[in-house]
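Quick entry between incubations.
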Amino acid sequence: MLPLDEFSLIRAWTERRQPKEWLSAAGVRIGIGDDAAAVEAAPDKDWLFAVDTMVEEVHFRDETMTDEDVGYKALAANVSDIAAMGGVPLHALVSVSIPPSWTPERMKRLFDGLYDCAGRYGVAVVGGDTTSAPRHLVVSVTLVGVVEQGRAIRRSGASPGQIVFVTGPVGLSAGGLHGMLGSASAAETGIPRAKKTPPPPKSLVQAHRRPAPSVKAGRLLLEQGFASSLNDVSDGLASEAWEIAEASGVSIVLKEPRLPLAGELASYARHCGVDPLEWMLYGGEDYVLLGTADKSSEAELRALFRSEGLPLFVIGETEAGDAGVWLDSEGGKRKPLDKRGYNHFARG
Amino acid sequence: MLPLDEFSLIRAWTERRQPKEWLSAAGVRIGIGDDAAAVEAAPDKDWLFAVDTMVEEVHFRDETMTDEDVGYKALAANVSDIAAMGGVPLHALVSVSIPPSWTPERMKRLFDGLYDCAGRYGVAVVGGDTTSAPRHLVVSVTLVGVVEQGRAIRRSGASPGQIVFVTGPVGLSAGGLHGMLGSASAAETGIPRAKKTPPPPKSLVQAHRRPAPSVKAGRLLLEQGFASSLNDVSDGLASEAWEIAEASGVSIVLKEPRLPLAGELASYARHCGVDPLEWMLYGGEDYVLLGTADKSSEAELRALFRSEGLPLFVIGETEAGDAGVWLDSEGGKRKPLDKRGYNHFARG
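Done. Structure below.
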């Protein structure tokens, strides 16, 4: 993450650089600012392009991820971006810049993990680039996907009076990370903390290391035409809701009692003596999908997901008004949610 | 560059991971191992994908490149990869991981340079990713190009008895870099070297900072069907010739007197008291095209390039035999050329 608001910086660097008409003539349907770009490929299909970068010491460390996990997750994050457009992932390019601490054997393991993910999602690895680096490893994966022409699901399609849904529980990845960092610090220093972080359950560690992008859910939403907007939860529920709210010009109200809290997360949070809500709202990298749909289609949507054996939680609704995100607590009290995303290893 | 042989490492990490038949069924025409990958996009066209990464302290430093140059060159290197397949560049994705030393103002300048290059080659910037980094800047650009279906020019098409050509002079970028590093060291330390490096002429600095990929030459070669193999000179003439020799299973013999030595490079090398041949053979980043063609088409090829106002130098020929690269000196003495590429800032 960047210290300042990443999105306003990117806007400042890239906005109004190339005329919209020119981009459109060049076949660009969706440019910078969504989970993936969409470009006309053939009369019946658009191609989707996503790129995601993982940086050592920023997104992972030796104590949080195995070498295989780094490769797996670098591709999985991109698969999730394609899923968030309703697309099918196809081809990947992998760029690595390698510091001396990453031996050829470690890199082999990284690629083991990456190809494991590629096999699982049917992705062909078609190219890449390899360079050295002075200190930290950087893995940058570009993923090409495909979607029916003109039908990629954007962030900007939500309108007031719709339901807000999510395709799985959130906060698990952040809970797992919390546990791994806490346990590691205690082990490293040899001094148990005043309140020692208990070791995290395997399911939370797995959620952090081996996310399972919602490709099937994304396709279902696109094919059945249910989702008016869609985003993947990479930076945290609040931050992703903000993106939809701003892109669509709506207010999003989440209902705290409806947020999907997994049993193992609740119990681990209790062990740690922390409120899991922080992880659920601001912990990223769950790679479930957050979207909106017409209220009239709620029952059908629920039935569809149930029949496919996929989870779906309706967690709030959209309202007219300034772009913003709110949380209604159990007691009915409404408070605004910050736009901030998740900072993996907060520095200073 | 990596300390060991980059290509054998990449092979070890990626080879035989995915069955050829499966890749082919997934529409992959050219996978890992050429300048760009090629994938079926529509009945009449293939799409090309290339990715190139520039790492601070490995590919550039403050004293060798302005911030604008870094952005320009990161895209230009990819444009050259597409040119080397005979393709047309279309869409780019830009991933940056940003250390504290790169302020938003510096990043703005980097994007100024990148969009300058995009404008020059008609490339639409459609997406990207932005993360922070602990120390060094990494810019990774993915470029999508297009080419007539099944016609991308590979490295593997050379056969014995063909001519070897290059589409411009080589060694200029390395000469410019040598000059900038030499001058900077002298300036930094305050102690003039025993043999002080004179400041490099502007044309060599420009060659290093603002390379001009041979898109027009690549298209001409594809449209007229002249090139049996093609590669861009990113790692150095010897290294690129080795790639063609190995991929095609031929021996390549370069003729020293025919190598295109630019006047300003010859005169600067004399000033520095060095032999420019090292720069010409092993200095990379000239981004001209190196290729092979039938002997019978030599006159036609020369006439075509002359009529288009483009440079073309016939610098050697292919022979039957084990894959290898040789240099015939003026006196007719033949010596083998190393496979090594260029190490920007050799360490230890």
